[in-house]
Predict the 3D structure of the following.
Amino acid sequence: MEIVGDTVFAAVDGDGLVILNISTPSSPSSISTTAVTSTLTAKALQVVGDYAFVAVSDGSGNGGIDSIDISVPTTPFGPYHCAATTTADATDISVSGDYAFVTFGDKLVIFDISDPEAPVVFGDGYATTNARGVLVAGRYAYLTSDDGLTVLRLGE
């Protein structure tokens, strides 16, 4: 979930991307709800500029990333989907520059989101046990899992 100004963006398992107005905190109001790719559910998201990048999966290990144009929050457009080859569900997402890093229970998958309307898998393969979260800061990706904290150096 993220808050941008008076707007909340939430990945809601059965609904997809839910956008709420919280200008009156005691009385939030719905702006819109956008479904993610068919048969998949929203697990985590990060908002960057005019797009919400949503980690999605189906409970059986099928998943990937959906990007949704939120430039007009009342009428989001998308999702634009890219599937990932994995055997576990999505758990978290961190966006840095042109890349989205998504943890699945069994590994980290990196998506190239330089064109948000056509995301593609850039790479994957860092295996872990029950990945729970990811945060990218600078040239490092920090992963939490049953193995503890793992720090990966990115790039050169």
